[in-house]
Amino acid sequence: MLLSNFIGGKFASFKEETFIDSYNPSTGKVYAQIPNSSEYEINLAVEAAHKAFQTWSKTSRSTRAQIIYKIADILESKLDEFAKAESIDQGKTLEFAKNVDIPRSIYNFRYFAGHILHTEEKSTVMDNIALNYIQRSPLGVAGLISPWNLPLYLLTWKIAPCIAAGCTCVAKPSELTSVTAYMLCHVFKQAGLPEGVVNIVFGTGPKAGQALVSHPKVPLISFTGGTVTGKKVNETCASLLKKVSLELGGKNANIIFEDCDFEKTVDTSIRAAFSNQGEICLCGSRIFVQKSIYPKFLDAFISKTRQLVVGDPKDPKTKVGALISKQHMEKVLNYIELAKQEGGIIECGGRRIILDGELSDGYFVEPTVITNIKSSCRVAQEEIFGPVVTVHPFETEEEVINLTNDNQYGLSCSIWSENGRRVRRVAESIQVGYVWVNCWMVRDLKVPFGGVKKSGIGREGGEYSMNFFTEQKTICLAN
Ligand code: NAD
Description:
By secondary structure, the protein is an alpha/beta fold. Helix content is 41%, strand content 23%. The chain contains 15 helices and 24 strands. It has helices at 39-56, 61-77, 79-90, 94-117, 151-164, 179-191, 205-213, 227-239, 262-274, 294-307, 326-341, 378-381, 397-405, 420-429, 462-469, and strands at residues 6-7, 10-11, 19-24, 29-35, 123-126, 130-138, 141-145, 168-172, 198-200, 220-224, 243-247, 252-256, 284-290, 345-348, 352-353, 364-365, 368-371, 388-394, 409-410, 412-416, 434-437, 452-453, 456-457, 470-478. The strands form 7 sheets. It has a 7-stranded mixed sheet with strand order 14-17-18-13-12-20-21, with helices on both faces. The chain has a 6-stranded mixed sheet with strand order 9-8-7-10-11-23, sandwiched between helices. The longest helix has 24 residues, at 94-117. The N and C termini lie far apart (64 Å). Nicotinamide-adenine-dinucleotide binds next to helix 7 and helix 8. The site of nicotinamide-adenine-dinucleotide has 31 residues, from helix 7 and helix 8. InterPro entries: Ald_DH/histidinol_DH, Ald_DH_C, Ald_DH_CS_CYS, Ald_DH_CS_GLU, Ald_DH_N, Aldehyde_DH_dom. This is 16595_t:CDS:1. Residues 16-475 form the Aldehyde dehydrogenase domain. Belongs to the aldehyde dehydrogenase family.
């Protein structure tokens, strides 16, 4: 499949005519070729977005919402097609793409279309002196940069609030997973989204991404990706005084107390550890278990991990698909080797899996459980972003709070306990942006989402996304 950029409502011809191979991770074969775009294409896209902003920013909320609802409806009618492409492009199971990625992408559009219809600005009367009211205005052309792990889900999590708010955008998806973003451009056309409101430019981070971040006519950047890249993006934005939102890496704790609902805890911990091959920024990859139930938990957890079928992403029995790339698979396997050097015990998994036939060159790794490792070791401190977890015993609340907070990241955490007061004490002491109690990855799009420490800056979701894409002006009318 040969992709082309989507600029000003057209599938644009491309100056350099050099393409990047994008692989199907489960076969190791090329699935798509994407334009290796540069500053030139970014400039064209920004110009198109600027032109469109003049009209789109003044288009009524109801018209914007109507078009965005239509995008959601068309996407929904093509759910199977999109899920199939996402699974081939990313390596995730078809089941996960069908039940998580694409439904959530549809909901991102529906949610923000509804949001702009049902919110109003505040006005306040100041005794009999004045009336203050707030005018909310879209900021302009936004640069949207997204990663490869939940390609359409995270791209639409930015595009939907951006265009609902009245901004226009230039989006750059990950060069590893561009196919569903390209398919989405056809949906935009079909839904009647005016030309130039969304422009999608494909290419690498250092070339197309950097050109977008540093473009003088792009006053705001919404970035989701790794912490090292986020830092670079932040440095560029700071020097140009841009508004920036950074959703970055995580090394999330899953804290299990002895009074938890045991079965539910084990089942959800398995999902939190290995969903999407562990390639979710929210995965619970550091599992802390209270000593009194540690042996029982470990037995149950290992036994359920062994039951997870790793294999063909198309097969409904498969629970763990392929990792995104050969390079990433090697990184994950290196962490497993490092764990051994650090004295860790590989309780299960630990190896690459070579499957038969067309999957023989795929990037499959067994779900891996590591114990006997200090929480201060690199494997328990750094983001592996694969199907690898470390399990650690603890005794007291204070100890587990310290262990959890002793990490550079602060994205999310799960707490398992039936004791409400304990839950509150722990939840309020943990340095993260999101705490799940007796659950994992239950998402309400109204609430603030984001990280602390090296997991990011800013919040997305509902009014928080709206605040990012708009500026509020107070207008004071004297009596
Ligand atoms: P990455 O940082 O390598 O790339 C993310 C995006 O940034 C890609 O589109 C890439 O092309 C682009 N990019 C790379 N260098 C750039 C540069 N110099 N300037 C501008 N753009 C550039 O991340 P990844 O490997 O694609 O994704 C995995 C990471 O994303 C993990 O760390 C994961 O935790 C994180 N993530 C965070 C969240 C969250 O909500 N906090 C969600 C998903 C993923």
